[in-house]
Amino acid sequence: MLSRTLKAMVFAAAITAIAQAAPNFSGDWKMNIAKSDFGPVPAPEELTRAIQHKDLNLAIKTHQKGAQGDISTELKYTTDGKPCMNKVNGSDSAGTAKFEGDNLVIESTREYQGMQLHTKETWSLSDGGKTLTILNHLAVPQGEFDLKLVLEKQ
């Protein structure tokens, strides 16, 4: 009996340690244009992102300025993989966010200019949590391409 109780306690402690080990992406972030790669898409002149990440809740406020003007978006997810709905440029965006190891993977699908757009973002922290790298794979009817966004904590 004691052995079972001890095993249960060790298992619970291990699960708690794993849950606590997930990176926290909270902070105010600014794009490093020199380290980012927008591939075939024109890069914005500037891009900032305010991220609030507490427990399972993730709130992302992005502002970018470029050839298309000033664009701001606000997205909310839970990092448990459950479906979340957001509005992006007036269109519904269905998405999920979940951890895969130390990486956060956000997948979303929405309509954009009459086309179906699917994105898969893989977030990772480096430099002691001071650099956020987002690898973004986009799929549209014309094909697929990848972007790399490097943000520095302010």
Describe what you observe in this structure:
With 154 residues, the chain is mostly beta strands. It has one domain: Calycin beta-barrel core domain (Lipocalin, Beta Barrel). The chain is 12% helix and 60% strand. It is built from one helix and ten strands, in the order αββββββββββ. The chain has one helix spanning 2-20, and strands at residues 27-31, 46-54, 57-66, 69-78, 84-88, 91-100, 103-112, 115-126, 131-140, 143-153. A ten-stranded antiparallel beta sheet has the order 4-3-2-1-10-9-8-7-6-5, with no helix packed on it. It is globular. The protein starts with a helix and ends with a strand.
Quick synopsis:
With 154 residues, the protein is mainly β.
Mean pLDDT, to the nearest integer, reads 91
CATH class: Mainly Beta
Total strand count, please?
Answer: 10
The number of distinct structural domains comes to 1
Report the CATH architecture. Beta Barrel
| Biggest sheet overview | 10 strands, antiparallel
Low-confidence stretches: none
SSE topology sketch:
Blueprint: H1 2-20, E1 27-31, E2 46-54, E3 57-66, E4 69-78, E5 84-88, E6 91-100, E7 103-112, E8 115-126, E9 131-140, E10 143-153
